[in-house]
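Limitations
The structure tokens in this dataset are predictions for the assembled complex, not deposited experimental models. Users should treat interface geometry with appropriate caution, especially where small molecules or nucleic acid strands are included. An illustrative entry is reproduced here so readers can see what is and is not provided.
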Amino acid sequence: MTLAIGHPADHPGPMAFVDDLHRPALSDEDLHHLQRVLRQRAGDPLTVADGGGQWRTARLDPAAAGALTEFGPMCELPPATPALAVGFALVKGDKPELIVQKLTELGIDRIVPFRAERSVVRWDGAKAAKAVARLRLVARAAARQCHRPRLPEISEVVEVAELVAAGATMAERGGAPMSLQVPFVLVGPEGGWSPSESALAGDRVGLGAHVLRAETAAWTAAVLLASLRDGSIAQVHGL
Amino acid sequence: MTLAIGHPADHPGPMAFVDDLHRPALSDEDLHHLQRVLRQRAGDPLTVADGGGQWRTARLDPAAAGALTEFGPMCELPPATPALAVGFALVKGDKPELIVQKLTELGIDRIVPFRAERSVVRWDGAKAAKAVARLRLVARAAARQCHRPRLPEISEVVEVAELVAAGATMAERGGAPMSLQVPFVLVGPEGGWSPSESALAGDRVGLGAHVLRAETAAWTAAVLLASLRDGSIAQVHGL
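Predicted assembly:
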């Protein structure tokens, strides 16, 4: 089937995620959000998306509370290339949620929480699973808010050495300028990389001249990668 | 007097602001922060800065609680050029504080809260003065944390039209790529610019393809301006 190409943000109304775009049905939570928070009424336009990049227009059905009607053709927002990934060291408080929220807004495709030696928090086993599930809900809410029809992948918590071995690049003060040749950047904890982490092989990218908090560093990496990919800035020289 | 050039972040220990670099004395609050939060002890190294870009190394005096000793030569972090400014529409909750915190970390020189027609919050008279005073404390705390010896200027709350008339550039989806020819960017409220604001004269800059929350837009503008200035990215074409 040929899909029309387009972006839900170019259509009126909010966006909601549904399980099946062919038979779209709103979750109770999304219906509540649309009606109570966004003040949508019967007949108002919206878009529905499947989280995988496909979406279509619809309206709240005046005839049946919570149902949808007047579906537009199936559309797709094609994946942007290269896929962008940002890993962040586990940090305390609500910072992981803020990181995931902003990275989702900025269009990062894969977000990877990892353990670093100087991570203040430890997520293991059940705690890690629960935290990752929570981060996936945060990504979904952020994607809905910014009309992003393709959800980012939120990976399970891994060890930093695994990511470096798989080709990810560590961010470090004084590293090379960011480039799309290294579209997977790892941002360390507030205390910096440990000596054994600093000894890991591979190139390093820098995030500018400033001393940044962990969450600011993750957002900075995301802004630079996304802006390089959409062509609004140019790289100085690649790694 | 000739000043040595350098950055406090390249010296060990935390940074604190003092009123007089020639006779540096810690405020009670800074002393508390150094001892209780950062666990600094007598003899530990730190740097002290005047908020105007000048700073020197010192140590906590083992002989007198809260006093400083062993002062290094007077140094300066010269101002970076061009000076960068970001204006943001008044937003609700703790977002103004988060915006000021991050823009300070990222090295923005002037931060300007402004009124827009679709600003949800209204700061007038005494409320505005109190809020701006609070934002200046936030900037000071953020600058201390990231070892930035030159405090950003936090302006009084103004009208957006005044800023545009003075040469600031409004950010809008679809605007031109960011460049250092427009080092003063205005980020609108969540609801976007009103028709009369959109009708204001002048060029527009874009912040990428994404739909961004107000605070994410302000941070994105700051990351791009700061990265262009420090040469870690290049502009595509200027306005």
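Some entries come with short summary sentences. For this one: Chain B touches chain A at residues 9, 102, 105-107, 145-148, 177-178, 206-213, 216, 219-220, 223-224, 226-228, 230-236 (CB under 8 Å).
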